[in-house]
Amino acid sequence: MKKNLFAAMILVALSASTAFAATNDTIKFTVIKENPITSIKNQSRSGTCWCYSTLGFLEAELLRKGKGTFDLCESFVVHHTMLDRAKAAVRMHGDVSFAEGGSFYDVLYCMKNYGLAPQDAMPAPGTLQGDSLFNFSELSAVAGAVVEKLAKGKQSKLTPIWANNISAIYDNYLGKLPEKFDYEGKTYTPTEFVKYLGLDADDYISLSSYTHHPFYEKFVVEVPDNWRWAQSYNLPLNELMEVMDYAVRNGYTIAWGSDVSEKGFGRNGVATVPLDDKDKDLSHSDAARWTGTDGMAEKAIAAKGEKTITQEMRQIAYDNWETTDDHGMVIYGLAKDDEGNEYFIVKNSWGEYGNYKGIFYASKPFVAYKTMNIVLHKDALPKNIAKKLGIK
C-alpha cells in the first residue's frame, strides 16, 4: 500500500469537501474545520465501538503526524483485551463484568503493553465465520459461558491453564495473535510496530466533567465498561467544551464517548437536544441498530431550538442513568448551520449509513450534555487548562 500517496489523496479529498455544504431535509451545514481521518468502518454485530473509535482516532493521529495512512487491526486489540477482561472477571468472582463493551483506555493499554498490528496481520473481521464483518453473538455466548462458570463456580482451585481455553476461543473466531508480521517489506513484532508508528500511549489523556469529584483532579468514571478503572481529568463543563473546540480548530481529532440512546440522536445524521426532550428511547444504540427504532429520533430533530445545557443537568443525567456509556466515535471537525449554530463533525463505525455516509453532525448542546469522556493528545489542550491540570 502506498501510504504517502493515499494520505495525500485523502487530504485533497477532505480539503475539497470544505468547498460545498452538506444538506438534509432541515439543515444545511457549512464546514468550518475538517481534520483528516481514515475511511469509515463497520463494527457490525459487535459491541466493539471502543476499539473502532480509538483505532480510528490513532489512525487520524498518524495522519496528523505525517506518518501516512494506516489500517490498524481491531481483532488484535479485541483478542488481547477480552483475555485480560476474562482474567479480571475470574479474579473478582464475576464482579467485573465480562462483556463486549470497553473503553478508550483498553486500546491505549494494549498499545503500551502488547503493541499494535496492521489489519493484514490477522484474518479480516468475520472471515473465520464465513462473513465479511464481525458478528460476536456466538463468540460472546461461548466465551461468556466459560468465564461465568469459572468466575462463579464452586471449584476450590483453578488450574494454571484455564486462560488458555479463553484464548483458544478467540483464536477460533478472530485468529491467533501474531508474534511477528511483515509490513511493507520489513518484519515487526507488535511492540516494534508501535515504535515504527511513533505513537506513545502516555501522550494521550482522558477528560470528563462531573461534580461528584473535585475539578482539576483525576477520577475513575464509574461505568461498568471502565473495568480497568482508567482515570480521567475532571474539568468544569465550559472548560471541557473549550478544550474540544480548541483541539479541533488546531488540527487535532478526539476520541468521543457519548450516550446515543437519545431521541435527539437521529438517523438523518444530526444529533441535538430538543426543547421538548422528555422521553428517552434507544434510537441508534448498538442494540436498536439490529432491533429497529420507533422513529422518535427523526421527529425530535425537527423540533426548533435546543436546551441550554448546565453542569447540573449533566450531573443529574449521569446520576439517574439517563446518560450512559453507549458508544465511542471520533470527532474530527466543526461545521455550522444557516443560523450560525456550531456542530462537531463525527466519524461513526456503523458503515456508510445515512445522509452523510457514516458521519453525522452533533450540536454543541448535545456534546455538552451527553459526553461521557474524551481522549486526545495532551498537546491539544489550551495552555491555561494544561497548567491547571499540571500537564506539561
Q: Helix and strand layout, with pairings?
A:
Layout: H1 3-17, E1 22-23, E2 28-34, H2 49-64, H3 74-91, H4 104-113, H5 137-152, H6 162-174, E3 181-183, E4 186-188, H7 190-197, E5 204-208, E6 218-220, E7 231-234, H8 237-249, E8 254-258, E9 270-271, H9 286-291, H10 296-301, H11 311-319, E10 327-336, E11 342-347, E12 359-363, H12 364-370, E13 371-377, H13 383-389
Parallel strand pairs: 5-7, 9-12
Antiparallel strand pairs: 1-2, 2-10, 3-4, 5-13, 6-7, 8-10, 8-13, 10-11, 11-12
Could you walk me through the main structural features you see in this protein, from its secondary elements to its overall organization?
This protein has 13 helices and 13 strands. 37% of the residues lie in helices and 16% in strands. Helix 2 packs across helix 4 (104-113) and helix 3 (74-91) runs antiparallel to helix 6 (162-174). Strands 1, 2, 5, 6, 7, 8, 9, 10, 11, 12 and 13 form an eleven-stranded mixed beta sheet that branches. The chain has helices at residues 3-17, 49-64, 74-91, 104-113, 137-152, 162-174, 190-197, 237-249, 286-291, 296-301, 311-319, 364-370, 383-389; strands spanning 22-23, 28-34, 181-183, 186-188, 204-208, 218-220, 231-234, 254-258, 270-271, 327-336, 342-347, 359-363, 371-377. It is globular. The protein is α+β, with helices and mostly antiparallel strands. It starts with a helix and ends with a helix. Strand 10 (327-336) and strand 11 form a beta hairpin.
